[in-house]
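Most newcomers find our protein records easier to grasp once they have seen one. A learned vocabulary of local backbone shapes supplies the integers on the structure line. An example says more than a description, so a record of this kind follows:
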Amino acid sequence: MVQRILQWILNVFGTVYVLIEQFVEYPDDDVILGMDIDEDIQTMSRKNLCRYMDAVLPEKGFFDIQSTSKIRLGCQLLREHKRLKKNTPYAETDGLEVGSPGDYDF
């Protein structure tokens, strides 16, 4: 029951966030955390970015998943990209020390 209430609250705040965020301009999105962003992706709306993700991922529904799940998916995609780029087998830690999930909280 508590989880359902928490999910409902997150959905309400998420909806408000999406409504407000559509008016925000992101002028410095050509590089994000040191990664070059293609010009066409820079100009996409949130909805179009999610549609793009739906087009390239194995399943549709990117817009509807929670933010933490999106971050988790991004981490997995970067791990796969890194593995393909290095052409090496999957490494459990990717060079990071293994710890409990709380070790990476900030």
